[in-house]
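Anyone up for a design puzzle?
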């Protein structure tokens, strides 16, 4: 009897121990499988959710500061805005090297191995434009996102604003630009190697002229940039719009960057894409003076000259 009781007791202990141990084993977390590392240089996945569409009135507001830019300059600005996070750094570099032009500027860009994509590099000769974009990043992100998600609507908004400026008498041909009208309004530089930057107040040129206003003075085209063959690798001279098809041609190829492929799309450029550590700065950095900035805003050529050492 004692042996039976002992056997029952031992069996009870075994079952009790097993009852505690088995559930603990069953509840133990399973090992998490390790994800393979992402190779360097491969873009991380980007959410594909498209932002809410801008209505026409909002697009009119967004494009109004640049709608009257000559077509090649407008196309380059739209492309650069899709890389908005790179704008501030490029604006600082362009400002500090604004005294360089033509081949001297492209040589400095190469020796400094500037890290921004060719779309941003194309605007380095225009520090005032990069400064405008960097100083209003919410707007720059808006125009970039709109151009990624609604490129046709953005181009339609540009045409609407141009038509208003034309109807009110503000937009007209002059010595620097030719305004071609018809179903679509083109603004092209008279000299394809000389790109003027128009300065205007959107609240004025897209509204009926006030009594006593001289419409011809509302848009200032006095300041421009000579580009020439040195900047051909960035698409200058081969950048324009095919307005009937709502197509932007940059560097002689259709711009295909959209919201869905923005993490992987690489537009064909001859210009290099520098990666890796950058060399030390090899040039004297001279920021633009307030006098130079005001001259550009007023549509005048800056009078100051710098002698880099």
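Challenge accepted. My sequence:
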């Amino acid at each position: 009897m004692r042996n039976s009781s002992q056997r029952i007791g031992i069996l009870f202990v075994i079952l009790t121990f097993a009852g505690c141990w088995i559930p603990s084993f069953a509840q133990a977390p399973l090992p998490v499988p390790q994800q393979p590392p992402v190779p360097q240089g491969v873009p991380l996945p980007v959410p594909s959710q498209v932002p809410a569409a801008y209505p026409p009135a909002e697009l009119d507001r967004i494009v109004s500061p640049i709608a009257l830019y000559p077509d090649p300059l407008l196309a380059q600005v739209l492309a650069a805005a899709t890389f908005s996070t790179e704008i501030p750094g490029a604006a600082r570099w362009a400002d500090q090297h604004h005294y360089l032009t033509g081949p001297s500027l492209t040589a400095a860009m190469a020796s400094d191995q500037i890290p921004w994509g060719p779309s941003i590099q194309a605007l380095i000769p225009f520090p005032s434009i990069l400064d405008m974009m960097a100083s209003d990043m919410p707007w720059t992100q808006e125009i970039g996102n709109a151009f990624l998600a609604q490129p046709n609507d953005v181009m339609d908004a540009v045409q609407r604003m141009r038509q208003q400026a034309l109807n009110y008498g503000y937009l007209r041909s002059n010595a620097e630009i030719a305004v071609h009208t018809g179903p679509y309004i083109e603004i092209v530089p008279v000299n394809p190697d000389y790109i003027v930057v128009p300065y205007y107040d959107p609240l004025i040129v897209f509204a009926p002229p006030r009594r006593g206003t001289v419409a011809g003075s509302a848009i200032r085209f006095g300041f421009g940039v000579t580009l020439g063959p040195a900047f051909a690798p960035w698409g200058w001279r081969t950048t324009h719009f095919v307005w009937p098809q709502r197509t932007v041609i940059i560097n002689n190829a259709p711009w295909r960057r959209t919201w869905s492929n923005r993490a992987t799309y690489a537009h064909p450029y001859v210009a290099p894409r520098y990666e890796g550590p950058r060399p030390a700065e090899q040039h004297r950095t001279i920021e633009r003076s307030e006098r130079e900035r005001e001259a550009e805003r007023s549509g005048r050529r800056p009078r100051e000259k710098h002698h880099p050492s």
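A detail worth pointing out: The CA atoms of residues 167 and 208 lie 9 Å apart.
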